Amino acid sequence: MKTDWQNIPAELRKRDEWVTWTRAADGKKVPDGSVTDPSTWRSFRAALKVLKRGESDGLGFVFTRESGLVAIDLDDCFGPTRWGYDVTRALNSYMEESPSGTGLHIIVKATLPPNVRHKVPYRGGAIEVYDRARYFTMTGTVCPGCGPKRIRRCPKALRRVLEAYGLLKTPASAPRVATKPRLRWLSDAKLLDYIRRFDSREYHAIFTKPKERDRSKLDLRAAYLFARYAGADPARIERLMEPLRRDKWDEARGETTWLGRTITKAITETNSFVIVRRKGVA
Predict the structure, then answer these.
(1) What is the rounded distance in angstroms from the CA atom of residue 37 to the CA atom of residue 17?
(2) Do residue 203 and residue 159 come from a single domain?
(3) How far, in Å, CA of 196 to CA of 199, rounded?
């Protein structure tokens, strides 16, 4: 685990809201204090001394309602679909790599609305948001070009992210319905041409020059790509994925097949769709 404590913003290091954590046998990171009991927290310097003595495995920062900070955890966003860039560009605030190196932790100045959904699965990973009673494992390992080394106030940008990724609960009287693309007038061939033009990097990374050696991950990546354009149409997604076909697709998985389960997962976790009109994209 890489660390660079000087990258952590000074306004966080000045707060006495730090804990240390230890990795348990099952891999979970267990804090040495309670996220709801300030008497168990330390100053940054005190927590760092504990870590340097070898009495813990890392440092963590506790979020409280009074701090006015929101934690956004992009779990496994560096996986095969590498989906975190839209979120990082939208928020453009302090962010650092998670201890595993496969995710990102982002901190912004804002408050969460009461109807927030704290965790949603997304493209093989998950997005989590909290503003109290949680802690972030901290590393200080920033990604070059990912964002500034300061915490930005961006309530409007955060709201747009919450809405775009399905992190807001809707009232029971108005159930959330995903917007599906209006693409039925396009043939499969024309739709593929459209995707090659407007999502060429992702398309070629899957079908032309794949670097992913795990075929299952490559299949899931393709399903995510086509779910954005073909919406909740499993049959069409399967047709578009045909060049990747292999025997595993037909293996039984309960009442469906391996491919059926993969496509269902992609459709379920896709929160935004591309809507194509005859004269362009909406």
Answers:
(1) 10
(2) no
(3) 6
First to last CA, the chain: 43
Kindly give the pairing relationship between strand 104-109 and strand 152-153: parallel
Place of tokens 């998950």: 126
- CA separation for the pair 210, 82 (Å, rounded): 14
Q: Could you identify the residue written with the tokens 């979120």?
A: 87
Domain assignment of residue 89, yes or no: yes
Q: Write the DSSP assignment of 48-108 as a string of letters.
A: HHHHHTTS-SEEEEEE-GGGTEEEEEEETTTSTT--THHHHHHH-S-EEE-TTSS-EEEEE
One domain, residues 157 and 196? no
Q: Which two tokens stand for residue 4?
A: 């660079």
- Residue 270 has a CB neighbour count (10 Å cut-off) of 20
Confidence of residue 74 (pLDDT cuts 50, 70, 90): very high
Strand partners, 75: 126
Give the domain extent around 106.
5-164
Per DSSP, what are the bridge partners of residue 281?
276
The answer to whether the predicted template modeling score (pTM) of the entire model surpasses 0.70 is: no
Q: Check whether residue 205 and residue 123 sit in a common domain.
A: no
Evaluate whether residue 173 is within a structural domain: no
Q: Give mean pLDDT, residues 207-212.
A: 82
pLDDT of residue 143: 78
Query: Per residue in 113-154, pLDDT tens?
Result: 988 889 888 888 889 999 998 999 999 999 777 778 899 999
Distance CA 42, CA 44 (A): 6
Evaluate whether residue 60 is within a structural domain: yes
Angle between helices 200-207 and 188-198 (to 10 degrees): 110
